[in-house]
Structures are given as structure tokens and as C-alpha cells.
Amino acid sequence: EAGVAQSPRYKIIEKRQSVAFWCNPISGHATLYWYQQILGQGPKLLIQFQNNGVVDDSQLPKDRFSAERLKGVDSTLKIQPAKLEDSAVYLCASSLVRDIQYFGAGTRLSVL
Amino acid sequence: GENVEQHPSTLSVQEGDSAVIKCTYSDSASNYFPWYKQELGKRPQLIIDIRSNVGEKKDQRIAVTLNKTAKHFSLHITETQPEDSAVYFCAPGAGSYQLTFGKGTKLSVIP
């Protein structure tokens, strides 16, 4: 069974630039999550999708972050404009409804 | 929202000894209690989980115990090996299984 795919693996940008991350969940998983993991901390949930609807985006900084999951499969997370404090690993996870979450390898973002 | 605390933040044990990590949470609605292991530069991986109708679960050298009354659950690793060295996160969840991760415990197993 293929796992959660994320790209790119690494991204370096200047502050105030924009960046986008892509996630392809495990086939059949209706629920998709985006987490932000700052170095030395646990992952923090940014947004949760159920199919193509948003379940929770209460911790998403909506002035600069946006996410979509068109057709209920792939998802993209965008940051515009990026700040220095956005440097982190962005993890995507997927699950069946109310079940174990499986994580992708993440995208490591460095904002200079 | 859920407040999650893990103790200790770092733990060093000799190979073959046992390790115990405790997680306390605040939301009484939490009903799912997983532990994730994250090796350096890798993705978090589920190593064991327990649901609120069970008090203890064991899988070979790893066990999780739950005390819902006191709102804490613990990870127990016996006969530790160098490959157990990693950061361990508890992540209690409720309802739609939104997880709130603790800050992590860095376990070092000394050969």
C-alpha cells in the first residue's frame, strides 16, 4: 500500500515570497490533515479536511495560509507572504474516518 | 482546547532497561490515545494506541496504560534497544480524532 506522498521535500525561499506544498493521501482515506512542526516541538494541526470539506481550520493563520482539497483527494497548502517564523516542517497526514493517522515525509521549509 | 503535557522531556536509559513516559491531558472528551515515534528527520509513526474503553494494551516490548479518571496515559518500553532512541509524542484525540500532540520526549538508549 502506497503511503502519503508529499512534495517538494525541501524548499528555501526569501521572506515575503509565496510557496505551495502538495499532498496525495493514501487511496481511500477521506480525512486529510496538514500539520506544522517547528524544530523541537510536536506537530500542530493547521487544517483538517473530510473529503473536500473543511472540518477544522481554527489554527490556520488565514491572513497568509490557505489550503484546498479539490475533488476530495489531493491537497495543497499555500503560504503568501511567508515570514521567518514559518520555517518548519509541514506534514500531511491521512486517515479513514475516525481512524489512525498516517503521516507523509513532510516538506522542510526554510524562510530566509 | 486540549492541553497536553509530557514528562520527562528527555530520558536516558541503559540498553536493556525500561523507559516510561507519561502524558497528561485536559479534555475529558478525549477517547483516543496514541503514541508516535519520530526518528531524526523522519515522519512520525504510530507505535501503539489505546481507546477509552480499554485500560492497557501491550505489543511485544511496548505497552500503553490509561487512567481516564486522572486524565493521563503512559508509554512503557521494556528491554530497550539502541534503535528505540527517538522522540516520542503522545497525541490524545476526541470526536473526529483531531490529535493534539505533546512537546515530545527525547529518549536516548545508551549501548
Structural features:
heterodimer; A: mainly beta; four-stranded antiparallel sheet; 11 strands; B: about 110 residues; mainly beta; five-stranded mixed sheet
How does the SSE layout of this entry go?
The complex is a heterodimer of chains A (112) and B (111).
Chain A lengths: L4 E3 L2 E4 L5 E6 L6 E7 L6 E7 L2 E4 L8 E4 L6 E5 L8 E8 L6 E2 L3 E5 L1
Chain B lengths: L3 E4 L2 E5 L4 E7 L6 E7 L6 E7 L4 E4 L2 E6 L4 E6 L8 E5 L2 E2 L3 E2 L5 E6 L1
Parallel strand pairs in B: 2-12
Antiparallel strand pairs in B: 1-3, 3-8, 4-5, 4-9, 6-7, 7-8, 9-12, 10-11
Explain the overall architecture.
The complex is a heterodimer of chains A (112) and B (111). By secondary structure, chain A is mostly beta strands. Chain A has no helices and eleven strands. In chain A, the strands form two sheets. In chain A, strands 2, 4, 5, 6, 9, 10 and 11 form a seven-stranded mixed sheet that branches. In chain A, strands 1-3-8-7 form a four-stranded antiparallel sheet, with no helix packed on it. Chain A is globular and about 35 Å long. By secondary structure, chain B is an all-beta fold. Chain B has no helices and twelve strands. In chain B, the strands form three sheets. A five-stranded antiparallel sheet of chain B has the order 1-3-8-7-6, with no helix packed on it. In chain B, β6 and β7 form a beta hairpin. The model of chain B has no long low-confidence stretch (mean pLDDT 94). The chains are: A mainly beta (112), B mainly beta (111). The interface between A and B is medium-sized, with 22 and 18 residues.
**Number of helical stretches of at least 4 residues of chain A:** 0
Secondary structure tally: strands of chain A: 11
Order of helices and strands of chain B: EEEEEEEEEEEE
Helix-strand makeup class of chain B: mainly beta
Estimated share of beta-strand residues of chain A: over 45%
Computed structural class of chain A: mainly beta
First and last CA, distance of chain B? 40 Å
Distance separating the two termini of chain A: 37 Å
